[in-house]
Write a structure and sequence with these properties.
Layout: E1 5-9, E2 12-15, H1 20-29, E3 33-36, E4 40-44, E5 54-56, H2 61-71, E6 75-80, H3 88-98, E7 100-108, E8 113-114, E9 117-118, H4 124-134, E10 139-140, H5 144-151, H6 161-174, E11 178-184, E12 190-197, E13 202-209, H7 218-231, H8 236-254, H9 267-272
Parallel strand pairs: 1-3, 1-6, 2-4, 6-7, 7-10, 10-11
Antiparallel strand pairs: 4-5, 8-9, 11-12, 12-13
The structure holds 3-hydroxy-5-(hydroxymethyl)-2-methylisonicotinaldehyde.
Length: 275
Amino acid sequence: MSTKKIVSIQDISCYGQCSLTVALPILSAYGIETAILPSGILSTHTGGFKNFTFLDLTDEMPKILNHWISEGIRFDAIYTGYIGDARQFDLIRQAKEDILNPGGLLIVDPAMADYGKLYTALNEDIVLGMREIVREADLILPNLTEAAFLLDTRWKETYTKEEILQIAKQLADMGPKTVILTGVSYEPGHLGAIAWQKESEQYTEYFTEWIPKNYHGTGDVFSSVAIADVVNGKDIYTTLKDSCEFVVKSIRNTLPDESHGYGVKFETVLAESNL
Ligand code: PXL
C-alpha cells in the first residue's frame, strides 16, 4: 500500500493534548504522512484554562496554501478540526479544490461544542460556517452537541437509538456520504459511536464501557484514529472499534492521575498499540 498523505487544518493548542498535538502523532504512527495548515496558535485549549492567548493565522494560511499549489503538492485527505475564525471556511473550500488528489476526501470534525455548549471562544459565525462546510464533506465526525448545532435543533442529555439514527440520516442529507456520531449512548453503562453510510443506507455501531469522567481532547483522539483507519482503507466496523477502544484505553490510562484533568494520556496507548 502506498503511503497516504493528509493535511490537517486546525489550531495548535501549545499545551493541553488536543487538536494538532494529538492529530500529528496519531496519524504519523498510523503510517500517514501528515502536513499541517495551522488555523491559529493558542497557549492552551479553551476548555478550563483561563487567560489563554490566541494568534489568528487566517492571513498566513492563503500564503501557505498558494505556495503548496505552486509546488504541485497534493493530499489524499484534508482533515479539519477546530476553526477559530469563520473566514477560514473559504480557505478550506479552496484547499478542497486545489490540493486534493482525484478521489481525495474532505473530512470535517466540526470541533466546536460539547455537553450542550459551544466552546468558550467561538461564536455563531463558526456554527454557520460549519453548517456550510459539512455540506461539502465526504465524512463528518460530530458529537451529539455538534450535531444539534449543525441541525439547528436542541441538544438533549439522552437519546433513543431511533433518534440517534434520525440525526445521522439528517446530517447525511446535508451532503456527507458518511456520518460518524460520537459519544453515543442508548443503553445504560455503554458509550460508543455509530456510523451512517448514505450509499448503502446501513448503520454500524460500536460500544464500550461508559467511564463516567469527561476529558477534553477525546474527540480529537477519536477522530485522528478513525481518520487514519478510513484513509488506510479499513472497513467502518474496524474504524469504530479501533477509535472507541483507543479513547477508552486513553481515559483508563489517565484516571489514576487525578491532577491530570485537561486531556487524556494517549501517548503510551499509541506506543503500545499494534498498528
Ligand atoms: O479539542 C477540541 C479543541 C480544539 N482546539 C481548541 C479547543 C478545543 C476544545 O476545547 O479549545 C482551542
